[in-house]
Design a protein that fits this description.
alpha+beta; 2 domains; 3-stranded antiparallel sheet; 14 helices; 11 strands; elongated
Length: 363
């Protein structure tokens, strides 16, 4: 049995049984969540949240080895994902990963070898097919309790703190979204903004909150560490949607992550900076493309070598072709749907007009 399996399983079985059956504990959870979770043997966060409720009639979960850890998956990944590295370094209190179950189980084996505690989340999902996002998914459907027997889409929780893994699992099981955000270390302003934006994101943007962040932040020069537009290709420094690209709490957190990543995985940190510190062409459902070697012109237009620019997987075919060919006329037909958000390392004195000025491709 790998690191912490028995402890995680015991705490989960005890906590779920008590929270689902003891009415006194359920009432205490609504009044004083920290005290209630402590009575379950968990070192809960000093949370400001109140009224955590247990969906008693909806709890259905498997808590055996297969469901929690998928021990039959033995392979390990050669490189941990960035959120797991940040968790292993202590910079991130809890990492939440998404993906096919077997991939996550392989990552879990590697996380355990790196000294982390972890388990797979309680549910498995069917994911939506979303345009312009490659294999990334913002929306899920048909949530059911997982038995750990399939390669369905699931979640993985890892941390240096065993109790935080168990609390994260309970938050997923009981839909304590705000509490999960606290456990993950997300800034409260960003968590509130996400909750406010989510209904519109689902209705209009296939669950892509980034569109609203871009609209609310504008196109001006932003800290490259907050570039969440390339996450569809697995490139990111932060794992949450900032309330805006000027969010001071997010920038502080991102700088902490960069420092930790530089110490523990310097080559990966350098690669991330090279990929993220660029202006990004953002066209919503049509697709996304980092504009490598783009230059800001005096009239606030962008000029770049279109031949070197490729849209991320899943982008609209016509946009991909226009980028690949460096065809300025074809690209301009997408305007005003296109926005270029500047994360490049340029002078912070650059001034941007609110109106998009256009693009020029040179081959």
């Amino acid at each position: 049995m790998s690191r912490g399996w028995k402890s995680i399983q015991t705490l989960l079985v005890t906590s779920v049984q008590r929270l689902a059956t003891e009415q006194k504990l359920q009432r205490l959870l609504e009044q004083d969540p920290q005290q209630a979770l402590r009575q379950c043997g968990l070192s809960a966060l000093q949370t400001k949240l109140k009224d955590l409720r247990v969906p008693v009639n909806q709890i259905s979960v498997w808590l055996d080895d297969n469901a929690l850890f998928m021990p039959h998956v033995n392979s390990e990944v050669s490189n941990l994902p960035i959120p797991a590295i940040l968790a292993a370094s202590g910079a991130k209190p809890l990492a939440l990963l998404h993906g096919p179950a077997r991939d996550l189980a392989a990552i879990l084996r590697s996380c355990e070898s790196a000294g982390l505690f972890g388990c797979l989340g309680p549910q498995e999902y069917q994911v939506y097919s979303e345009s312009g996002r490659g294999s990334y998914h913002n929306l899920v459907q048909d949530q059911i309790p997982s038995r750990g027997m399939s390669n369905a889409w699931r979640t993985l929780l890892v941390s240096v703190d065993l109790d935080r893994v168990v609390l994260g699992y309970l938050a997923l099981l009981c839909s304590w979204d705000s509490y999960l955000g606290e456990l993950l270390g997300y800034p409260d302003c960003c968590a509130k903004a996400f909750a406010k934006r989510w209904p519109e994101a689902v209705a209009k943007y296939e669950g892509d909150v980034a569109t609203q962040v871009v609209e609310d932040s504008g196109q001006g020069h932003w800290d490259w560490r907050l570039n969440i537009l390339l996450r569809y290709s697995g490139c990111e420094m932060i794992q949450h949607f900032p309330c805006s690209f000027s969010c001071k709490k997010s920038i502080k957190l991102a700088k902490k992550y960069e420092l930790s990543l530089t110490q523990y995985a310097p080559q990966l940190a350098a690669e991330q900076k090279k990929k993220l510190a660029v202006p990004v062409l953002y066209a919503g459902k049509l697709g996304i493309a980092p504009l490598v070697e783009a230059e800001l012109q005096s009239d606030n237009s962008w000029q770049w070598n279109g031949v070197k620019t490729q849209a991320l997987p899943g982008a609209d075919k016509s946009l991909k072709q226009a980028l690949r060919q460096g065809d300025s006329k074809k690209i301009k037909k997408f305007i005003p749907k296109i926005k270029i958000v500047d994360f490049s390392i340029t002078s912070k004195n650059n001034k941007y007009s609110k109106k998009y000025k256009g693009v020029t491709c040179v081959s």
